[in-house]
């Protein structure tokens, strides 16, 4: 879904702290994702200054078409190897990491569901599964 994002899909939120991202999701419906402006503002504005709003954000560099899924998988595989991450491929490890980071910070499961843009909470549970250490820590807290 992110590979087809255009600069025009990003709008500043009413509070000015986030970009609201309009994403064409599975099933052909639009959903909104959010990213804190502080994370990407400088890079986003620099890229927008040399691109048109209707241009894709992620390109192969030699055309105005979106980067292919295969190229993204290759790039991520190299990054994972450099980070010492083995036996993991594709983009979903990023979703799992994001969800687990939110779980570790005691984020409400409904908020995680909305952040991941899942329709069913059961899908979110696949991504946001408590670890044994998390269970032990919570048990200590309530005992």
Descriptive overview:
By secondary structure, the protein is of the alpha+beta class. It has a domain at 1-55. It has helices at residues 37-49, 69-82, 92-104, 109-116, 121-127, 132-142; strands at 10-12, 18-24, 30-36. The chain has a three-stranded antiparallel beta sheet with strand order 1-2-3. β2 and β3 (30-36) form a beta hairpin.
Mean pLDDT: 90
Helix content: 40-55%
> What strand line-up does the widest sheet have?
1-2-3
Q: Strand portion, in percent?
A: 5-15%
| Structural Rg | 18 Å
Strand segment count:
3
Order of helices and strands, N to C? EEEHHHHHH
Shape assignment = globular
**Major beta-sheet overview:** 3 strands, antiparallel
Report the span from N to C terminus. Answer: 44 Å
User: What's the helix count?
Assistant: 6
The low-pLDDT segments are none
